[in-house]
């Protein structure tokens, strides 16, 4: 698959680049993508939720009324879950939501997401992305040139670019990630993906042989 290469001003350079079939041309595996996204979201959960059960409620354990003769149900303590202020039955407890996935399945999920984006014409290829000093205004100008200012955008760089990260962190709907730090969630959550030419070789090296 060939796509046009643009410069940082949004102008077509007249060149085309061939996306590697081993990265952008695989048959998407929806279940692998589902599992990888599920693991990512599960790992974001702190798992610190907690409610008190009847044994943890502070208060008296005195029997509040006699056992028989009141015409109502018997009750032994105000800590009972049936009373306001009582303990909760089977309430949430601190737990770890994370689970394990095999590396090959995670790689397949990322390849599936990249291929889905490519087939949907949602990949924008840039020849280079140079920002000399961190300026949000400069980064917004690049998005405007590519007509991506109103879309959720993921920028894939070949390595950590501090100026690009700092320039984009205050821009809504934009995330910058390295080719080695991609997640399936970020890929599927983006309307458009800006990919630098230099990052293609990194993607191919990371995932093509998985």
From TrEMBL:
Glycoprotein as UniProt keyword: no
GO biological process per UniProt: translation
Region spans: Disordered: 45-76
Keywords: Ribonucleoprotein, Ribosomal protein, RNA-binding, rRNA-binding
Keyword Hydrolase: no
GO molecular function: rRNA binding; structural constituent of ribosome
Top-level taxonomic group: Bacteria
Pfam families to which the protein is assigned, alphabetical: Ribosomal_L4
A Gene Ontology term for the protein's cellular component: ribonucleoprotein complex
Family: Belongs to the universal ribosomal protein uL4 family.
Stored PANTHER family: 50S RIBOSOMAL PROTEIN L4, LARGE RIBOSOMAL SUBUNIT PROTEIN UL4M
Function in brief: One of the primary rRNA binding proteins, this protein initially binds near the 5'-end of the 23S rRNA. It is important during the early stages of 50S assembly. It makes multiple contacts with different domains of the 23S rRNA in the assembled 50S subunit and ribosome. Forms part of the polypeptide exit tunnel.
NCBIfam families assigned: rplD_bact
Assembly information from the UniProt record: Part of the 50S ribosomal subunit.
Descriptive protein name: Large ribosomal subunit protein uL4
Source organism per UniProt: Nibribacter ruber
Lineage: Bacteria, Pseudomonadati, Bacteroidota, Cytophagia, Cytophagales
Gene (UniProt): rplD
């Amino acid at each position: 698959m060939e796509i046009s290469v643009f410069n940082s001003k949004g102008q077509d350079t007249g060149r085309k680049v061939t996306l590697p079939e081993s990265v952008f041309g695989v048959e998407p595996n929806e279940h692998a993508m589902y599992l990888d996204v599920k693991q990512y979201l599960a790992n974001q959960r702190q798992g610190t939720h907690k409610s008190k059960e009847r044994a943890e409620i502070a208060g008296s354990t005195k029997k509040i009324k006699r056992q028989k003769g009141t015409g109502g149900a018997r009750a032994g303590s105000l800590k009972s879950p049936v009373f306001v202020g009582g303990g909760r039955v089977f309430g949430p407890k601190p737990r770890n939501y994370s689970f394990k996935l095999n590396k090959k399945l995670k790689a397949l999920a990322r390849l599936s997401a990249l291929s889905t984006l490519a087939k949907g014409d949602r990949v924008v290829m840039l020849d280079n992305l140079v920002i000399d000093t961190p300026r949000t205004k400069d980064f917004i100008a690049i998005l405007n040139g590519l007509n991506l200012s109103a879309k959720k955008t993921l920028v894939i760089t070949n390595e950590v670019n501090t100026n690009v990260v700092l320039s984009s962190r205050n821009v809504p709907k934009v995330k910058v990630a390295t080719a080695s730090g991609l997640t399936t969630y970020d890929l599927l959550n983006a309307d458009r993906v800006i990919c630098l030419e230099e990052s293609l070789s990194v993607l191919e090296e990371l995932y093509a042989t998985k």
